[in-house]
Amino acid sequence: MRARPGTGIASFVVALMLAAGAAAAPADDRVLPPAQYVSPKAKELATRYASALRALSAEVYHCLPWVEVSKQSVGFFKPKNASEDDRYLSIRIYIEQESSPQFAQLGLEQQASAMFSRYVGPLLQRMARNPALLNDDKIRGFNVILEWTKQTPQRAGGRPVHETIAVFVEKPDGVAYLGGTIRGHELADKTRILAWDGEQSLGPLQLSAWDDNFVATYKVQNYQLDPGVTCP
């Protein structure tokens, strides 16, 4: 097992872009509608699992209130330049966080390792709530896209640059992780991880990862779930 980085990663603070009177439901445009798929296979999956996709979007909205699910980013997507119509259950989130000198000093691989460790496992658990998804041979695996603001000084009037990783988890590896057969660092070894610095593709990354309970233990001050909502 690879060594876990020190407290610089563990201590960086999440900034909460919340208001006490937040809307009671996620925006309707987070799930890509079936009609917008070109592939018949993807349209069929999006139609069949429409309620599961909406439930995934809603659970992340309510239970991870410091992240933002991107518009039309929940669905069944395939990797760019894929030769086959391989469909992955996908979600893309933007992670809100305030500037942290410790985090900013880390290289992209270390930052990406921290993000992978904190979010990929918890999102996989939520993506696999519906057992039918795990048994559907038309779904090859899971795709988790994590995005955060690059912590470098910005020129006056310049647009913030985002760092992004796209994690492709094959279904057998996802099932093994969710079943406890493999740990977080083994999952990272088995997955295909692509990175971007702004719009620039950096290609594949090999990450050091660990089991991180941040999502399960972090509490947003004064945040209350809406009546009838629970977070498993």
Question: What is the overall number of helices?
Answer: 9
Shape: globular
Strand content of the residues, in percent? Answer: 15-25%
Mean pLDDT: 87
The number of distinct β-strands equals 7
Low-confidence stretches: 1-23
Q: What class do helices, strands and sheet pairing give?
A: alpha+beta
Rg calculated over all Cα atoms? 17 Å
Report on the biggest sheet. 7 strands, mixed
N-end to C-end Cα span:
29 Å
In short:
With 232 residues, the protein is of the alpha+beta class. Helix content is 32%, strand content 20%.
What does this structure look like?
- The chain is α+β, with helices and mostly antiparallel strands.
- Helices cover 32% and strands 20% of the residues.
- It has nine helices and seven strands, in the order αααβββαααββααββα.
- The protein has helices at residues 7-10, 40-48, 50-63, 101-104, 108-127, 131-135, 171-178, 184-190, 214-217; strands at residues 67-69, 75-77, 87-95, 139-149, 162-170, 192-197, 200-204.
- Strands 1, 2, 3, 4, 5, 6 and 7 form a seven-stranded mixed beta sheet that branches.
- It starts with 6 loop residues before the first helix and ends in a 15-residue tail after the last helix.
- Mean pLDDT is 87; it is low at 1-23.
